[in-house]
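Q: What would this complex look like in 3D?
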Amino acid sequence: MRASELVFPQRLRLAQTPTPLMPMHRFCLARGLPLIWLKRDDLTHSTASGNKIRKLEFCLAEAMQQQADVVLTYGGLQSNHCRATALLCAQLGLRCHLVLRSSSRPAEPADGNLLLDQLAGARISYVAARELACDAERIETDIVNEYHQQGLRTYCIPIGASDATGLWGYVAAAAELATDFDIHSINPAHIVTASGSGGTQSGLMAGAVAFGLSAKVWGINVCDDAHWFQQKIRDDLTQWDHKYSTGIDVNSLTVNMLDGHVGEGYAKASDEVLETIAAVARSEGIVFDPVYTGKAFHGLLKEIRAGRFDQPDDLVFMHTGGVFGLFPFKDRFSQLVSC
Ligand SMILES: Cc1ncc(COP(=O)(O)O)c(C=O)c1O
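A: Here is my prediction, written as structure tokens for the whole assembly.
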């Protein structure tokens, strides 16, 4: 498979790319760590920042192509994906309906991502996690039918925009990384990302093959377990290949997971994770979030110290954004690091 043979589908240019690839000299030197580079996808946009905008460039292009009026998507109460979708829909003149996992209407005033969802004018349904898990299809059908009765067409995006369409976002990002590596004259052996719904990792895996990166792509799962992600990523890659006939042998790709860093659960962060976030902010002026990037980066440091990686120098960590998810943790931070 040569990159020139890969035919990208329609795409909207929404993200500020290419994003910088930056070395964490000070942080790594002070701790005797091999050099870690950050791919700064936290800089893809001011408010719609992070990894989701790359995927949404393809999903929202498809929505426009299908002449959708409403975009429906899903996530946790503090979903970065939902916030990015809400803001980008506003930018494109589309209506946005978010189904957020919550057993009750959250307390006012809203914080973090939820505040931005509201500001962007998204319509929000709060649905308990259990109900959503058991009854997702009916919930989606009811919402789509409701809009249909008003003469409106709905385009549905799954959690995290991790599907065959959204996957292209990180195939394109792998092409960007290939250029970054040339510019900096490095040849990293490892690229590590937080995995929440798997689309960033699967896109990077496919893109690494398409654009000739020799690096191994690793996911640090922030929820579920390695088995769940291996299945999900294989399914998404298979659907991607079926939909687009990519010419990439997706069955030959290995899903490398670094499991064991979820801690108490999704969206729960230990004091150690928060301390790592504060340490990076102080030594590099770069901010991770407690749910995805901070938890995964903390896990990465543990894996490096445990000797997990061969050729650990010039390892790349994807800074996939999430800064607004920091604010609901403000009380914990103020107790811990005297902010
Ligand atoms: C900030 C951030 N980083 C990483 C991820 C994980 O990406 P993915 O859902 O593609 O696995 C997400 C979303 O889940 C996220 O919001």
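A: To summarize the key features: Residues 129-149 form the longest helix (21 residues). The first strand starts at residue 21 and ends at 23.
Q: Very helpful, thank you.
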